[in-house]
Amino acid sequence: TFVDVEAVLDGLNRVQREAVTSDAEVLQILAPPGSGKTRTLTSRVAWMLANGMNPSNIIVATFTNKASKEMKERISKMIGGGLEHRLIIGTFHSIAVRYLRKYGHLIGLPGGFGIADTGDSSTIISRIIKKNKYATIDGNDAAGIKSRISNLKSKMQSVDEYIASQKKSSHSEEFSKIYAQYEKELKNSNLLDFDDLLLRCLDLLRAHPLCVSNIEAVLIDEFQDTNLVQFDLMCLFASRRDKITIVGDPDQSIYGFRAAEIGNLNTMQEVYPHTIVINLEENYRSSAAILNCSLGVIEQDKARPQKGITPTHEVGISPVLRQLPSPDAEARWIAQEVLRLRAVTGNLFNFDDIAVLVRSGGLAREIETQMTQKRIPYRLLAGIKFFERAEVKPVLDYLRVILDPNNNEALLRILNTPRRGLGDKAFKELSDMAGKKETSIWNIVQKAARGDIKMGGISKPGFIGLGKFVKIIRDTQDALKSEETGRPEMVGQIIQALLEKIDYKIYVGDKLQGEFEDRWQHVEEFVAQAVDFCRNVVAGIDEVDLPDTEAEGNPLEESASVAALGKFLATAALASVKEGPEAVGNGDGSGLLTISTIHNAKGLEWPIVFIPGCYNGSIPHSRSDDHDEERRLLYVAMTRAQALLYLSYPSELWDRKSGEMQDSNLSSFLAEGNLKPLMVSRGPNITLEGILSFSKIMSRECPTHEMVQATINAAGLRILEDWVESDDPTRNYEGYSQDPYEEGYGSQPQYGAKRG
Ligand code: ATP
Ligand code: MG
């Protein structure tokens, strides 16, 4: 196929081109945010393809599933031809799943293993704690213990190694017991947790390097956040050719709390002494004002080596640092400001040009409420994941049980959902019996339903319920496997039939609080996603050729639809963000504003970024003991912004412990003396010059002075002149004697709204 090489290199600077076309075997591209690392990496993949490399022989690891989707889209634009669908591209976890599905049997992994997501893991741990009446350890709840276990696994410390390394104390003993029991329960349920996926893949590739014998190149984005296991995986992936490209930025390492290993950059240079390092120094993302302000934050880290970063854009509009009376007022101010910005610029931006980035998911709630009230459509990259929703999760669990009834976790959750007359006693009896007989709960359930074993804890309706349940599971299994209906195209109908058999609509309407319409829409969206996914599998999109090894094929007998559905369930378990529809408001084609945690915003960019909650206790967070990582987190957040950056903090906070309002202080990262002059406290004053520089940064068509003035006149607004920066508190916003965001402010000025 003819490929236009110039299309791959188009628009790159000299150093970026050098990196893309480099012959180096091992290449590290280290560079600050917005310098085009991801773009360079993407172009390098396209370059390899353009030079005839087989896409099935290239592994690309990205930080999120969304990032790999975007990368594929860009590659497709550059070279076309559908090659991008055959790349082995995804997060480390999803790549590991592909290898384990195909070759797991080689290391004795039972076929059709399930994936325990973070929620599953926490439930298992809570149950262990409850059952053994363990006191909570060091005040850690199940999620806390899970993350401790996960950290150990990420450092490849097994239970036995952990125990050996500990001085005996009652705390460490209880923790070891929980760890050991947790591993056992996962095994009994045929589940792998996220860390296991990587660890087992490591086992596989160590024992059977032939599985990756085809791999010619390995490329990794956001390398600064890889952990030790991922590093070893990288080496194994690349073992045949040692051709590796990584891109990263030590200043953006923000996953130390999850055992990311910043030392991996140096280790790599030790393991591969011929590593070539390329630095990119120009920032293409942000205005110079935003870049300087962000640098002012990161440069407070005195241990950090000095580096060159040059802005390519002009100064632009100064970042705004604003104090508001409360978190609630902060949220109101943001919503107002979004509407005002659109009004004064003649809708130069859409809602999808705007992001609100928060330190923790909890802060997102206030923002959501305000967006809903002001009818600003938004999507959430924080908070509850789509697949974790109360109305979606049970459907997912039914499918998991149908594919693997030995998945005790999923089974326990759906046995009485919807209600089948089973009480706590029944549950206890079923799991005790399974434990005693060392068999799965499903086996006991079947026997109980047949009346083969006596169960004192189950009522008569309970027995009938169990019988129905067993029949529904078996019937659906049969449908998936039968010749007539066992085709991936039929998966949608099979799921619909299942929902009817369990009267799911009634369950969603009666048992779950909240709007039925919204909830049912999520269920339908879930089914649609499953159907779409299975269709794509049929169409062969994203079907990667992995090499056949000596022990060919997975011995597990699977129909095509079982296989397709299995892949879908794995994808759902790995989905890192809520990916369902979350549009609230009018949705008139102006896109959705993004509300995200800072962690989820990594690698992304928006013309306008708001960072509320910049106070000591939130950032740096009171529970974090790594001050430098907290600073990097703020740096990551600030460097997402292209043209306008808003930082804010409340002057008072509700303190949960004392139940009283308490003073809150501006984040010490922003309070540094030399930073404040770089920011303005009100505004920004959107001048024509501001709008002009703005359009340039975003490479958008620039509105003329007349256009802007006309919009303002049409809306009857005087904002352009009225919004002035002033220390005089009586000179206020649009002639109001009171700041519109003060507590108690009643009628809202109609900045963005159309006036009839
Ligand atoms: P981060 O560290 O935040 O992940 P990054 O280094 O990966 O940032 P990219 O996301 O690749 O940076 O690029 C940032 C922006 O700069 C993108 O919009 C990209 O298209 C643009 N860009 C990159 N290189 C160039 C260039 N040579 N000319 C113009 N724009 C560029
Ligand atoms: Mg990037």
UniProtKB/TrEMBL annotation:
**Keyword Oxidoreductase tagged:** no
GO molecular-function terms, A-Z: 3'-5' DNA helicase activity; ATP binding; DNA binding; hydrolase activity
GO biological process, alphabetically ordered: recombinational repair
Give from-to of the shown chain within the full protein: 9 to 764 of 1001
What range(s) does the UvrD-like helicase C-terminal domain occupy?
Answer: 288-603
Please report the name of this protein according to its UniProt entry: DNA 3'-5' helicase
UniProt domain UvrD-like helicase ATP-binding: residue ranges = 10-287
Keywords, sorted A to Z: ATP-binding, DNA-binding, Helicase, Hydrolase, Isomerase, Nucleotide-binding
Q: Which reaction does it catalyse?
A: ATP + H2O = ADP + phosphate + H(+); Couples ATP hydrolysis with the unwinding of duplex DNA by translocating in the 3'-5' direction
Entry EC number(s): 5.6.2.4
From what organism does this protein derive?
Arthrobotrys flagrans
Protein family according to the UniProt entry: Belongs to the helicase family. UvrD subfamily.
> Has UniProt tagged this entry with the keyword Coiled coil?
no
The region called Disordered is annotated at 729-756
